[in-house]
Amino acid sequence: MLIKIYTKNPDERAVARVVAVLENDGLIVYPTDGVYAFGCSLRSRKALERLKAIKKKEESGFSIMCADLSHISDYAKVDTPVFKLLKRNLPGPFTFILKASSRVPDKVLSRRKNIGVRIADNPISHELVAALGEPLITSSVKDEDQITEYTTDPELICEKYGSLVDVVVDGGYGDITPTTVVDLTEEEPVMIRQGGGELKL
Questions:
Q1: pLDDT tens-digit map of 22-32
Q2: 76 close to 98: Cβ distance less than 8 angstroms
Q3: pTM exceeds 0.90
């Protein structure tokens, strides 16, 4: 199912329809400030298993999409220097690797102690997470290290994945640039991948 939501002033009823799917163990594709991404509720074991089957990810785990910095602090360990760095760079096209808190389910971590966290600079993803009231487990719609047209065009995404997910949110064409990935689990930030975000230290 394709549900259109406009980036400017996302329609509350459309957002509520998508959130209802998420609350019922649904799996969606939604726009971020980078490429489109798969998403499901942090509490949904069924949806996570479906996501793992699509992405063939078992050991590497997933990131979580949060609504704001306080949301991140609920699910990851954030000290004052890290909080200031996050505040300078988020929302934006970054994935920050942090030490996970006990609120992140083991099924998401897959035996890891760290979790990738995001706050996308996209009103649609923000409204979805805020309305759901908890983070989305998230993973980019792309082949490993490869961006193609079907990862940016919601109609093509629906053609490819429509039978595997419950909803594709059409928020217009996505970006072709992945996020910048930064590891914040050590004393100094470590750049893992340079993507769409320029890190402000």
A1: 999 999 999 99
A2: yes
A3: yes
